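Researcher: Good morning. I'm working through a list of sequences from a screen, and I'd like to move beyond sequence-only analysis. For each chain I'm collecting a predicted structure so we can compare shapes side by side. This is the next one on the list. No need for commentary yet; just the structure.
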Amino acid sequence: MKGISENSVFSAHELSNTAQAASKGYTTFAQQRFMTGKDTSFSAKRFSAERNRIRERIFEIKAEIDFQELALEIYRYQFSENPTYRTWSNALNRNPSNVHALEDIPFLPIHFFKGHEVKSGSAEAELVFSSSGTTGALTSRHYIYDASLYRESILRGFKQAYGNPEAYCIIGLLPAYLERPGSSLVWMTELLIQESKHPDSGFYLYNLDELKDMLHKQEAGHQKIWLIGVSFALIDFSMAYPSVPTSVHVIETGGMKGRRREMIREELHAMIKSGWPLRRIDSEYGMTELLSQAWMLDEKHFNCPPWMKVLIRESDNPLAYEANGKTGGINVIDLANLDSCAFIETADLGRIVPDKGFEVLGRFDHADVRGCNLMMA
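Model: Good morning. Structure tokens for this chain:
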């Protein structure tokens, strides 16, 4: 099947019809997996009773004590059901008998997703997401055993940050991601496009003149617009068309993909704003290895949904933690990662700012340069 043409524009409706999509030559992961008509609703019969009881509680967290209790329960479950994580935990002399607080939990280095099937339980995978990388490079693979869990995490997190998707015309400006299989970002965006139920919601590649016209059409109709884009594409768009409706919610996901030099977030946002008179540019913190997203709505601080938390470890001691305001490595607890590993040691540097959220400040030396969102601050 041929690849996507430079002038491709396609909507949720088009992607939902695989025959039509195939006739147009689309080979996106959303079309191949998510939009094939395969049932992605939750089926409790595929999992253990213990696992299903835990799943029911993930999105019912109301207080910090609820999070701590469930995180510790998931640690015990994944220690039992995830051979890769259990081996790592034992290597650090951590096990359910001596893990009693969040700070006791061992975090799995993110690079384990490159060489292992990080799996909790015995169900068969419904989806496989892969990270981007240079040709021939080993990439991360995240096996998804319950697509409905990812779906629920996306929608609940979006509604907490932005409200109902039906309030927006949702646009994905994601070249590079759309042109390879396995992108979790494409899967997320396609879901939001569907949930928006707007006839003009969809993906755009390189046909920026059509995108510009569509945005002005929405502005004329007083329609709110939510535009998520990879960094290099947003720069190209803002430079080519320096007039965009000020009502557009622009969300950058990071990632230059070799198209432009890497830059700090303030420089990126300033460059986009030099063409577009936007009040703010939002950002998303997510990655292949996570099923939840943190959103930045003030151009500085990311905020997690109730089932996700960030801890800052010491840069030279992965088992010790920094005080609030101090810079260190970002550890993520994502309780939606119930079927893989909920405790991820990333290669990102950051700090927690009390009552505001967390900042992403860069990456450790020699760490892979990745998108979604790893711009330095």
